[in-house]
Structure formats: structure tokens, C-alpha cells
Amino acid sequence: MVGSRMRKAGFVAGAAAVLMFATNTSAWANWTANNWVGDQGKMSQQWVDESYNEINFTGCSEVYGRKSVDVELWQQIDWGNDKRHDTSTFTNCFKGSSSKSTATQSGLPRDSYYFEIGNIGSGCVSCAVVVGKVNVDTTKAD
User: Fold this and answer.
1) CA torsion, ordered 113, 101, 140, 14, to nearest 10 deg
2) Statement: the pTM of the whole predicted model exceeds 0.70
3) Structural contact between residues 55 and 71, judged by C-beta atoms closer than 8 angstroms
4) Which among 39, 55, 58, 89 has most CB atoms closer than 10 A?
5) Helix (H) or strand (E) segment spanning residue 22
6) DSSP classification of residue 95
7) C-alpha span between 138 and 86 (Å, rounded)
8) Cα distance between residue 53 and residue 126, in whole Å
């Protein structure tokens, strides 16, 4: 009888964990997006970071010829104001379709993060950056 209850409790706990993961997959994995478009203030999807992350933009362009974009790393705070950790100015990705700009951060607390587009060029509210490939990687080993 006790063994049966233990198996049921284990099954219920396991099912709950699977359901939680299934409903939050966008926040748990490294992610990649092709042909990503963002204007000033656009936020990326979230991911969970365990202390290291790397944001990569490959092949950037902007219709008015701007050649830089500020990428702000934010920590999502559930019951308070989100916390900005870093701002990186990406310029190299504007040098061609295979050119990449990278920002890395380490030593961060385990939490949900996202990036937000800051200034495009020296600041252009009506501008949008087009990125051939955006990749967020939380694995330092590679």
C-alpha cells in the first residue's frame, strides 16, 4: 500500500515537472531566430541563464544605413523592476551577411533573461535593424 502511494506521488510530481517544462520551453533553451527584425525597444524572447550567456547577431542591416545597434541584457524580475546588466554596441555584424557581433556575460544569477534593442545608430525611433541570424547560447563549453 505504501509503495503504491509512493509510485503515485512520484508519477504526479514527474507529470507536474513535465507540464511545467512543456509550458515554459521558450524560457528554458538556447534559441536561434533567422531574419529577426527589431526596432528600438523591441524585446527578445526570454531564456534561463545559469551564469553565462552569449548573444550573437550575424548579418545586420538597417534601411537608412545606420551601422550600429545597442543590445541591452535584462534580468526579468517577477515582482519588481527588471534589472539591466549590460549594454553592448554591435557594429561588426553590419560589415556583411556573414559578419558577427557577440556579447558575453558571466557571473549572473540563475534567472530569466532577455535582450532589448536600444539605440540604432545614434538613436532613431523609426529605424529597425534586420538581423540575418540571432543566437543566444548559455553554454560556456563551446
Assistant:
1) 40
2) yes
3) yes
4) 55
5) helix 2-23
6) G
7) 16
8) 29
Residue type at 81 in one-letter notation: N
- Among candidate residues 123, 118, 139, the one with its CA nearest the CA of residue 44: 118
| Distance separating the N- and C-terminal Cα atoms of the chain | 49
Cβ–Cβ under 8 Å, residues 54 and 137: yes
The pLDDT profile of the chain, 142 residues, written as one tens digit per residue, is 555 444 444 444 444 443 343 334 445 568 999 999 999 999 999 999 878 889 999 999 998 999 999 999 999 998 999 999 999 999 999 999 999 999 999 998 889 999 999 999 988 888 999 999 999 998 876 5
CA torsion, ordered 95, 32, 34, 102, to nearest 10 deg: -10
Which residues share a beta bridge with 71? 88, 117
Distance CA 89, CA 91 (A): 6
What is the longest distance spanned by two Cα atoms in the chain?
72
d(CA 35, CA 88): 20
